[in-house]
Design brief:
Layout lengths: L17 E7 L2 E6 L10 H11 L11 E6 L4 E3 L4 H4 L4 H19 L5 E5 L2 E3 L1 H8 L2 E5 L3 E3 L13 H9 L1 H10 L3 E2 H7 L4 E3 L4 H13 L3 H14 L4 H13 L5 H11 L10
Parallel strand pairs: 2-3, 3-5, 4-6, 5-7, 6-8, 7-10
Antiparallel strand pairs: 1-2, 8-9
Helix pairs in contact: 1-3, 4-5, 5-6, 9-10
């Protein structure tokens, strides 16, 4: 791991399958780092991602945005590591999958905005990792697929839930039930991907949007993210009530006062997260 500024707690210090970088004070870049295996997700990667992301639920470590990407240009994540799974007993498979389920919850419950920068193939669990992020930037050479039904299983890291929310149920059924790959442009047209970039521009554009988010009031950003996520699981009237509760959290903050003051003084606000 390489931290370019703030030091992370010891529990986040070293990972066998990840590289963690801090390109600026408030932004973290998490790099899937198994290029020799197309960044496929093995048990250790599931453990590493869980260990990294779970603590953010109680301590954001002064972070305001996280980028999830991968080493190399060919693969974001090829899905579950089938070489590791070869010959795996049913019991071992179930234990491994329980780790992946916990990892998924850690990503979905992360209060810090999470942006996927998909640099290559995102198949199976790799597509599910991207879909679990708040939004996705992708290289124009990226490809996506949920191929599980071609292997005798089905998506089990959130794909049957996150994909329909992104692309709608009919498109999600087509993607999942055929197992066919689709391009970054198709993913953009269908609503899974927000922006498609040239390969050389992907990391720069992902960092630019992360920096933009990091420049906004962090409590406001976290509360807005939570209101969107929770509201999608509620009726409209309940969602509106939750939104107001989230909104009221900002009224007594120093950042709310700073935002109004900066506007009237015609300067850029300096938000402290208080």
């Amino acid at each position: 791991m390489s931290l370019s500024s703030e030091s992370a707690p010891p529990s986040r210090a070293e990972y066998a399958t990840l590289r963690v970088e801090r390109p600026s004070r408030h932004v973290l870049r998490v790099v899937l780092d198994r290029p020799e295996a197309s960044n496929a997700m093995n048990t250790q990667m599931g453990l590493d991602l869980t260990t990294l992301f779970e603590p953010f639920q109680v301590d954001q470590d002064d972070l305001r945005c996280i980028i999830l990407t991968a080493q190399g240009e060919k693969a974001f994540c090829a899905g579950g590591d089938l070489k590791e799974r070869r010959g795996m007993t049913d019991e071992a498979w179930a234990i491994q999958h329980a780790i992946f389920e916990r990892m998924l919850r850690a990503l979905l419950q992360c209060p810090i905005p999470l942006v996927a920068a998909v640099n290559g193939a995102a198949f199976g669990g790799g597509c599910e990792l991207a879909a679990a992020c708040d939004f996705v930037y992708a290289s124009e050479t990226a490809r996506f697929a949920l191929t599980e039904v071609t292997l005798g299983i089905m998506p089990g890291a959130g794909g049957t839930q996150t994909l329909p929310r992104a692309v709608g149920p009919r498109r999600a059924k087509e993607i999942i039930l055929t197992g066919l790959p689709f391009s970054a442009r198709q993913a953009h047209d269908w609503g899974l991907v927000n922006t498609v970039t040239a390969p050389a521009d992907l990391q720069g554009e992902a960092l630019a949007v992360a920096e933009r988010i990091a420049g906004n009031a962090p409590i406001s950003v976290r509360q807005a993210k939570q209101a969107i996520q929770r509201g999608l699981q509620m009726s409209l009237s309940d969602g509106l009530a939750f939104e107001i509760e989230a909104y009221n959290r900002m009224v007594p903050t120093a950042d709310r006062r700073e935002g109004v003051l900066a506007f009237n003084e015609r300067r850029k606000p300096v938000f402290t997260g208080t």
